[in-house]
Amino acid sequence: MFDFEYHLKALPHRPGVYIMKNSLGAVIYVGKAKVLKNRVRQYFQNSKNHSEKVKQMVKNIAEFEYIITDSEIEALILECNLIKKYRPKYNILLKDDKGYPFIKITLNEDFPRVFVSRNKVNDGAKYFGPYPEYSPVREIIELVKKIFPLRTCKKNIKDNSLMNKKKSTPCLNYHIGLCKAPCCGYISKEEYNNIVKNIIDLLCGKDKSTKKILIEKMNEASKNLEFEKAAGFRDKIIAVDKICEKQKIIFGNFENEDYINIYIDEKDSCIQIFFVRSGKVIGREHFILENVGEYKKQDLISNFIKEFYGGTAFIPKTIYVTTLNECELLQEWLTMKKRAKVSIKIPKKGDKLKLLNMVEKNAKITLEQFKLKYIMDKEMNKNILNELAKLLNLTNVPKRIEAYDISNIQGVDSVGSMVVFESGKPKNSDYRRFKIKNVEGPNDYDSMREILERRFARGFNEIEKIKDETLNYSKGKFCIFPDLILMDGGIGQVNVALQVMKKYNLNIPVCGMVKDDKHRTRGIIYNYEEIFIDKSSKVMKLITRIQDEVHRFAITYHRSLREKRVLHSVLEEVPYIGSTRRKELLKKFSSIDNIKKASYHELVSTPSMNAKASESIMQYFKNNKN
Known about the structure:
Elements lengths: L3 H6 L6 E6 L5 E7 L2 H7 L9 H8 L3 E6 L3 H15 L15 E4 L8 E4 L8 E3 L5 H14 L13 H7 L4 H4 L13 H15 L3 H17 L3 H19 L2 E2 L7 E8 L4 E9 L2 E10 L7 H15 L6 E3 L6 H12 L4 E3 L5 H42 L7 E10 L2 E11 L2 E2 L5 E4 L8 H24 L16 E4 L3 H13 L6 E6 L5 E6 L2 E4 L5 H34 L7 H11 L2 H6 L2 H5 L6 H13 L3
Parallel strand pairs: 8-11, 11-12, 13-17, 17-18
Antiparallel strand pairs: 1-2, 1-3, 4-5, 4-6, 7-10, 8-9, 9-10, 13-14, 14-15, 14-16, 18-19, 19-20
């Protein structure tokens, strides 16, 4: 039994991180403190001053532990890492943890390329972004390619025109005017880099000089009666205008800045962030925080900054907010992460405050739209599940649905998949995949029996461990059982599942999802009868979506295993590539095609690889093109 009084007295007068746990040992809250003794004791006294959420959390605290640090900034860093690791229930968490795309120009190559990158690393390349969405970035790059003839291949081209000319022939892009063929020595490094400089100028907002050059060339071609050539320059001018339209200039300082503001209603809030890069708003992003109405605005923004910039690849030079806690501490932390000075500013007047007010207005509109959509979706999903329960004559509405599928090619690399839908929506964190261990050959029934037995055996095993307090509930992967099981197949697969249910004395309804001759979902089998469902009904759309998802998940896993097996066997034939290097190449490139296309720089930068091994791979695939 945890002795609160003893442990509270034992708390040190030092900075650190405290970790609150519930009766199952699951971490429910992580916090930092300048003085651990003062901060942690506050939770267990003066409860009248606590918010309802804090009161509820304190009721669930069964024990706590702490980690002391040498400074408050170290405590902040540790707090961010532990929140990311445990995702505690009572911490304010961002649901969106995606990475943001950059436009990358490989200035570290003799003849640079331009493409989309999800990561920003110190490799000598130049990066623009991050951008909040992938599609506009892809469109900008396509427009850049229309204007400037830049190479897209991954060849390792050195600045040696004569050697390139002898060994290479130009590809289709050269013949249609999209590349100057540096691989064949048709353009010098200096000329090529002038093109790259023009691209950088354009992306930095210096579009007037680019347009002026294109207009002069268009007029000259027109005077010479080269109308087709003039039309080409006209199209490039239009492309320049389109690139500029996508980015609105707001300031003349051309710095990288983020503007963060929040709108809070009586219960929920929306944090909106505007990304300003090189003096332009390149996009925005929003995050919905539910059940935070009792929190202060400055606390929410402070927590947001810690979580958002703790995970994103790019930190701007300046961040603007309307209010904030721990401003100096956060500035110090961000400066450490960026390895350059970062400022957090609170403007009192002027254009920057106006933009922050606009950000708040956008946050308010976004929150209102989200709530309306959430209410509509929740009601719709509730009605669909009620309709499904009625259709199957179930006692309870199936809030949690698990679906299973098998994938193999003639029994090779046989795998099984489990997908989970809760309240009508996919719960990706509960998806599971199984590599078939005990079945040989293309036997789908026995394969399905194996994965079901493994799934429920693990579930019961975890439940016992949770009861014995040897496993935290939050770490259990199979301890939650479904209200309904859907099998991707007919009566045979349903019978297998029912046999497994009987073996484990479970009373879980089992249905089969069947398809017609055109591989479209036809209906479901339940209680040995096929039930007709209107194809246009929302119930059928949900079942089709579940079936497509479980099939996609199984196929993806099967394909990855097959590619890894083939890749591993091919690499065994390459000289100087042992088991360690095979493992690292497999980890980085995933497929043979990716290794074939890889440049020398990409190969040699792979862990455990050296110049000799990289040259060996390139020579092997050159000699074995088929």
